[in-house]
Specification:
By secondary structure, the protein is α/β, with parallel strands linked by helices. It is about 20% helix and about 25% strand. It contains seven helices and 37 strands. The strands form eight sheets. Strands 9-10-13-16-19-22-25-30-33 form a nine-stranded mixed β-sheet, covered by helices on one side. A six-stranded mixed β-sheet has the order 4-1-5-7-6-8. A five-stranded parallel β-sheet has the order 11-14-17-20-23, with no helix packed on it. Strand 28 and strand 29 form a beta hairpin. Helix 6 runs antiparallel to helix 7. It is globular and about 60 Å long.
């Protein structure tokens, strides 16, 4: 049996998070879906949008499903938008053990399907819309399951807060950690500054290898610091934070996800937010995660307002974006990929722009500038820039041309 992670049409609704990455690569609750699916012990392949295939294939040759023959094998199809959680892993294990061909539907979407060799083969290289057609025509028994799927970017924060503590307990069950204080677990290589305070009452605090924590830091569980993560002195990590590997973080961070290679190393508040990879927040950058009315936050996606049903939601920031010193981000705003942001962020920010609306300026950021910036950033972290990385930036630029038409819109508070 092979496992295929597939992206359906609704992956586009997770923009800007999925603009430069496959949906199964999003972090939520300290896990990525692809990590959990690999624990099924079966070969894993991916069926993804065309513009992200090059990077995936360079990273892991043979990972793209179209590069291997699956015609004569059972296939477990797993929706790439499923929330990565230990409970989901257990349910997928039960499905594999049953061996019974079926479709599992959660809400309006197919969450997973188990195909026998006699079943029609999926449209591996086709757009997401074709997957909906494939499942509609697939003659298999259908079961309804309650498996949460990511529908909008803010769902990352919703389910992250729900899944983090249990996912960390699962990490600890795998062993390899020393309990350095009650409820605080570390792998080798920890550098711990003086006067650090741990409060794991809300859940475990898990520190991966080579984590560095400066003096006078405060960590409240549950929390996960990935390999090589670094906390600057006087940092406050509170109420459900997950830091990816090779991140540098300072100031106050609450209930947020920070992807690998991102820096927020100066003072400022980040709350109930998601930061993509290779993001840099300038000193004093802060976001709001609560309305003055204490009501639920509505976010705008593709011109439509969506009530999140959440009282606390901050900002969603795409890969490679940067903020200047003292940038202020209003509640529930999204910042696209490769954006340079200054001043007050009172509207959603398109990808590939220099955004200074409070100064009356919004201009396009040329893709060649972002390619050069990527090369410099990669060099600082001993990462090699590949042709596929450059191609991906060009594809991201082309896919977001329609966003860069906001200069005539009024400020939206």
């Amino acid at each position: 049996m092979h496992v295929v992670l597939f992206e359906d049409a609704l992956v586009r609704r997770l923009h800007p998070v999925t603009l430069g990455r496959a949906a199964f690569e999003m972090s939520c609750g300290s896990y990525r879906l692809v990590e959990l699916v690999r624990r099924l012990g079966r070969p894993v392949r991916a069926a993804v949008r065309g513009h992200v295939r090059g990077v995936l294939e360079d990273t892991e040759p043979g990972f793209i499903s179209g590069t291997c023959n699956l015609d004569d094998r059972p296939i477990l199809l797993v929706n790439a938008r499923l929330v990565p959680s230990v409970r989901l892993l257990r349910q997928l294990e039960e499905l594999v053990e049953s061996g019974c061909p079926c479709k599992l539907r959660s809400g309006a979407s197919v969450a997973a399907a188990l195909l026998s060799p006699d079943c029609p083969r999926p449209p591996f290289d086709a757009p997401g819309e074709r997957w909906d057609e494939f499942f509609a025509d697939l003659q298999l028994s259908t079961e309804t399951v309650d498996w949460p799927l990511l529908e909008y970017p803010h769902d990352l924060i919703r389910y992250h807060a729900e899944a983090l503590a249990l996912n960390l307990e699962d990490r600890l069950a795998g062993g390899g950690y020393d309990e350095i204080e009650p409820g605080v677990f570390a792998r080798p290589g920890l550098k711990l500054g003086k006067c650090t305070v741990f409060e794991p009452a809300g859940g475990p605090i898990v520190l991966e290898e080579n984590v560095s924590i400066g003096p006078h830091c405060y960590l409240n569980g549950p929390a996960h610091l990935g390999p090589g993560a670094r906390l600057i002195e006087h940092s406050a990590i509170k109420d459900g934070v997950a830091l990816g590997h090779t991140t540098k973080v300072g100031g106050e961070v609450e209930c947020s996800i920070i992807e690998p290679y991102t820096n927020k190393q100066h003072h400022g508040f980040l709350g109930h937010s998601y930061l993509g990879s290779w993001v840099n927040l300038g000193a004093g950058t802060s976001n709001s995660d609560l309305k003055n009315t204490y009501g639920t936050v509505a976010m705008e996606y593709n011109g439509a307002r969506v009530d999140t049903g959440m009282q606390f939601i901050g900002c969603i920031v795409g890969d490679y974006s940067k903020t200047a010193v003292n940038t202020s981000i209003f509640t529930g705003k999204t910042i696209g990929a490769c954006a340079m942001v200054y001043g007050f962020v009172t509207t959603n920010v398109p990808s590939f722009v220099n955004y200074a609306r409070s100064f009356g300026q919004v201009t396009e950021a040329p893709v060649d500038v972002m390619v050069a910036t990527q090369r410099r950033m990669f060099t600082r972290r001993q990462v090699t820039q590949r042709p596929s990385d450059i191609d991906l930036l060009h594809a991201m630029f082309d896919l977001t041309r329609h966003e860069r038409q906001l200069a005539t819109q009024p400020l939206s508070l």
